[in-house]
Amino acid sequence: MHDTGETMASENVLDQPRHLLPVLIVAKSATSSQLRQVFMAIGFNQISTSSGYRAALADAKENRPKIVFFDDDLGEDGADALTKYKFVSAIQALVRDVVIVALSQNATGEEMFNLMKVGCKAFLVPPCNAGAVEGVFLQIRDGGEISKELLHAEDRTGAFLEYIIRRLDWLASDLKSKPNGAGVDERIKGFRNLVQMATFFCESQEPPFAERAVEVLIQHAEDLDKMAAQTRLRKTREMLRAQRGKS
Question: Are residues 23 and 97 in the same domain?
Fold first, then answer.
């Protein structure tokens, strides 16, 4: 069964009036109570809570939450276990364009990456305050999500490095044309966050991320040198043609 409401990208959900957005918090009582107070303080008033994944899914079927914060350590064991991955997938199937944030204390980079593959948008380490929650919303709204191409790339490290190089080129071009333009600090911060995220999500890959990064950057520098040389040769060719035309 799927949500039949208005279709909107998950990051755009966060631009809707907060009092209209149902929130579901799935966590143990202390964390749940604290987060409920935080959400109320920042303008949400449709808030439900649950202490387990199965009860949370029943709640989601009824209330169709647009924002779900869940403890990633509440999964079950056994053949028919409702794991954190199955829980995220089930929420996605129930509610279209839902924003899912994992509350995580001990998850590895690999676990977090796999949660993002099934639809998790961000992570937060409890205890949570209003500033931390707003920061996660800002990250999602400003495009902090990883693309499907990166999430499902066969060569994860290579895909991240290719994307980092593209972002670096865009940033360099942007800074060159508008060194004091609006949003420069935010773009630089966003690039640093991307590098940190890539390092974290590729920590289990072989060869190590840092070694691959050095090799890719060396190749990129060589490519830039070739491009610069080609540009100089083209200019020389144009100059010679111009001189010949005058003779």
Answer: yes
State the burial class of residue 18 (Cβ atoms within 10 Å of its Cβ: 0-12, 13-18, 19+): middle
Q: Could you list the pLDDT tens digit for every one of the 247 residues in the chain?
A: 333 333 345 558 888 999 999 999 999 989 999 999 999 999 999 999 999 999 999 999 999 999 999 999 887 666 678 999 999 999 999 998 999 999 998 888 888 889 999 999 989 988 889 999 998 898 787 665 677 888 888 888 888 888 888 888 888 887 777 777 666 777 777 777 778 888 888 877 787 777 778 777 777 777 767 776 667 667 777 777 777 677 6
Query: Hey, what's the torsion of the CAs at 167, 170, 171, 173, to 10 degrees?
Result: 160
Question: Which range of residues forms the domain containing residue 178?
Answer: 148-246
Q: Is residue 232 part of a domain?
A: yes
> C-alpha angle with apex 150: 149 to 155, nearest 5 degrees?
105
Looking at the structure, do residues 69 and 156 belong to the same domain, yes or no? Answer: no
Single out the residue in 110, 125, 141 at which a domain terminates: 141
Phi then psi for residue 216, to 5 deg, are -65, -40
